[in-house]
Amino acid sequence: MLKFKKLTQKNIKKIQKYTVNSKYPLCDYSGGVIFTWYSTYNPTFAIFDDTLILKIGKKNNERFMLPLGKNING
């Protein structure tokens, strides 16, 4: 089971390795956008097999963003 951690200003550098080189043309993965919507989307993250998994939303209304990293094909 994945352990998701709250995304904070202190640990955002852990995910930048994946977001900076993203091939998805979306601003949703930028640190600024993530923190702008922090109180609404409550972002959490997990890294598994060199792949970033972002979860947004609050209890009973959570969603996953497209994974970023090495293992994105399953």
Secondary-structure map:
Blueprint: E1 5-6, H1 12-19, H2 31-36, H3 38-41, E2 44-48, E3 51-56, E4 63-64, E5 68-69
Antiparallel strand pairs: 1-2, 2-3, 3-4, 3-5
Provide key terms for this protein.
23% strand; five-stranded antiparallel β-sheet; 74 residues; globular; alpha+beta
Largest sheet entry = 5 strands, antiparallel
Write down how many β-strands occur, each being a DSSP E stretch of 2 or more residues: 5
H/I helix tally: 3
- Give the overall pLDDT as a whole number: 83
**Rough outline:** globular
Percentage of residues in strands: 15-25%
What series of H and E elements makes up the topology?
Answer: EHHHEEEE
- pLDDT < 50 stretches: none
Oligomer designation: single chain
Rg estimate, integer Å:
12 Å
Proportion of helical residues: 10-25%
- What is the terminal separation in angstroms? 16 Å
**Helix-strand category:** alpha+beta
Write structural notes for this entry:
Helix content is 24%, strand content 23%. The chain has helices at 12-19, 31-36, 38-41; strands at residues 5-6, 44-48, 51-56, 63-64, 68-69. It starts with a strand and ends in a 5-residue tail after the last strand. The protein has 74 residues and is α+β, with helices and mostly antiparallel strands. Strands 1, 2, 3, 4 and 5 form a 5-stranded antiparallel β-sheet that branches. The protein contains 3 helices and 5 strands.
